[in-house]
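Deadline looming. Please check this record:
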Amino acid sequence: MLKLIECPRDAMQGIKEFIPTELKINYLNQLLKVGFDTIDFGSFVSAKAIPQLQDTATVLKGLDLSTTKSKLLAIIANTRGAEDACKFEEITYLGFPFSISETFQQRNTNSSIAESLVRVDEIQNLCIKHKKELVVYISMAFGNPYGDEYNPSIAIKWSKELTKRGIKIIALADTIGTSTPENISLLFNELIHELKGVEMGAHLHSTKEKAQEKIKAAYQSGCRRFDSAIHGFGGCPMAADSLTGNIATEDIELYANTNKISLGLNTVELEKSYAASWDIFNKYH
């Protein structure tokens, strides 16, 4: 069984034209019918930083959660955002990007790595109080374009540090598409072996032609939690001017089908979701 986290938030956040709230609601309601484990649906961050997602609270009110098994995840960048997200019972997970690149952490959350570690503690306390679970993304886990020091041991060190703070879900994020099968295998083999009881996820960005080899490397190294976005849209607007897209949901589906791995999805509703996504991504840029 492979656990799939669909990421429409990541797909939409870099789009400059504002996508109407009602269209977002309709698309998310379609995704809720598919049976994804989790949907990364929105974020509680500064509207100035990510204007596309300023309507997350309104979108949430329009979602039909009555029959879905999918859980909701919202991205936050600081304690204030976490406080806002914790007001909503419908949200199960808060996602926090913790970059091991000092430059990117400043660009993405306007804080240093040391300050972000304090935020992790504060947000984790809020999650415990409000019965949420914190998912920490190790941003720039496979390298960075800024010249900041990097080697796999840095990613391993910070992952271990976070588990000391009670974090039970950590996703290694290939923020700019620099991962290779070799470093994917190295990190997941090491961390899955050492961090017992911690769910390790893969949030990979990739060109289309390299997607299958990256998925294979993570899966064969023991990863069973994958983030993806339909048609591979998205990327981090804080990372670069040209975005490397997310691993496409279709590529995860292809790998799973080829290797007879269950995704537990409603394939009819998944096909409808593939079609519905064009209503957003063909019209807004």
